Description:
The chain is of the alpha/beta class and about 375 residues long. The chain folds into two domains: about 1-70 and about 215-385, Alkaline Phosphatase, subunit A (3-Layer(aba) Sandwich), CATH 3.40.720.10; about 85-210, Alpha-Beta Plaits, CATH 3.30.70. The chain has helices spanning about 25, 30-35, 55-65, 65-70, 75-80, 115-130, 175-190, 215-220, 230-240, 260-270, 285-290, 295-315, 365, 380-385; strands at about 1-10, 40-45, 90-100, 105, 135-140, 145-150, 200-210, 225-230, 245, 275-280, 320-325, 345-350, 370-375. It has an eight-stranded mixed β-sheet, sandwiched between helices. Strands 3, 4, 5, 6 and 7 form a five-stranded antiparallel β-sheet that branches. The longest helix has 23 residues, at about 295-315. It is globular. The N and C termini lie close together (about 10 Å).
Amino acid sequence: MKYLILLGDGMADWSIDELDGKTPLEYAETPNMDKIAGGVVGMVKTVPEGFAPGSDVANLSVLGYNPQKYYTGRAPLEAASKSVPMGKDDVAYRCNFVNIENGIMKDFAAGHISSEKSEKLIELLNNSLNIESVEFFPGVSYRNLMIWRDGFTDNTTPPHDISDKPIERHLPKGEHKEFLLDVMQKASEILKDNNIHKYANAVWLWGEGKKPSMPLFFDMFEKKGCMISAVDLMVGIGKLTGLYIHEIEGMTGFIDTNYNGKINAAFDYFENGGDFAYVHVEATDEAGHMGELETKIKAIELFDEKIVGEALKLSGDLNDDIRIAVLPDHPTPIKIKTHSSEPVPFAVWDSKDADSYEGGFYNENYCRDKEFVSEGHMFIKRVLFKE
């Protein structure tokens, strides 16, 4: 048996008036996810009580790791993806390039700056900032890192939580806030006159934490697995849990990503003896953060066609049975442009039972009042790996 998780980041949403009260998942054309919904469907609570609804916490849950036991922060997971060395007392911070105008967070992604330009700006900061205990590392697009050697954690806010809002009340808070504010202020002075990407006029520090320690996925579930994602966070989780990491050209973390490369890599992995693949697509989440309804609907339909549809086609060529799960990690409602923590819909399709399925509808309302998994980290064991 092969096992495949297809995760549309932030795909779930709330009812929207412009869609006659439907959610984007209800409104979008999703024939392939509807086919998956002919199997086992329900809701899963991926974000434990007391945790912020981030992709870090939620994806750890979906992968089978209890955030209450293993989560230390988002940035150290991303640091792991880049093999950034961290001592036991070092603290990683996520460092977004952003656009701030008149004290308002206008764009948490600096216009989705290219990775090439972002890397040049990171080099500029490292060469110009002159703070001995601080070093910046490039990531993908606007998603970069700062390591504070022998540093401290303070209370910070994700910039995508405050789109189009004043930043003043959301700046770092805590005993060491002055250091972080000084870094952010000096970075703004450096960036304001840059000729690389003028729209990136500031950095925003958040997602702080020290290096975590987690057991290997194989040791927990006795299955050889891989992680396929454009996003450093997911690659970091994969590396820390011993999953094989595919490097695929053209993965962008947005709507123009290399869908075919992703799903083909998963099935190539199966053909070469792998048991489990986790295919993560970020575009649905980005559209939610942007508050662009048409873009989110398009991202959902592309996910359905190019990821779920292709997975169903390729499953017919496997020499093994396959079980496919479709779900988001958390909702990213258009209305609020950030994450929320409600349970998310899941659907699980099994090739050996496919002839008995009558089909369904993959959306929040259809999956509600069906099976409910109250602890997200149990989903993989209770639903996906259940024999």
